[in-house]
Amino acid sequence: MTVERKAVAPNRYRESFGRHFEDFRLGDIYEHRPGRTISETDNTWFTLLTMNTHPLHFDAAYAAKTEFGRPLVNSCLTLSIVAGMSVSDLSQKATANLGWDKVKLTAPVFAGDTIYAESEVLDVRESKSRPTEGIVNVRTTGKKADGTVFMTYERAFLVPKRGHAVDDIDSMGAPLGTLASGGDRGPDS
Fold first, then answer.
1. Which fold has domain 21-161?
2. pLDDT tens digits, one per residue of 146-161
3. Ramachandran quadrant class, 37 (left: phi over 0; alpha: psi -120 to 50; beta: rest)
């Protein structure tokens, strides 16, 4: 997770999460923390909320007769949690997700499993149509606490350059770190 302190007024600071376009480097790997232990309630509620009626996710008697012997965690839930784990490191400042590709589910996840995620930067390039933004491509991997990889996917997103993110600008439209009179706002300006 990337956190910085931004001066918003004399002796007043605001935390800011995420990376600007310039902070991404090809080949860097970010380990996303904290992890998350999946509960049976998480799985049941998510499965029913999304109207997935497959009993493998919420009917223990049915699931006991399958090769898994117990309910599987809905893979859309694990995808959502893994993606969510990556936000503060990757896309907290993003303007938009541009696409998801190559989603692979390589091992089952069960209630009680603790999962973690990490992302590798595959490509970083400036946007051709948006001069204050760039495009970042990453491969994210979901792992259980024992190291078993259960998911991988690639994602592309549009990220603003430094000084152009929503949280780089104050409520008056001025860049953070400068007072209306042009004075210094503090050590992070």
1. Thiol Ester Dehydrase; Chain A (3.10.129)
2. 999 999 999 999 999 9
3. beta
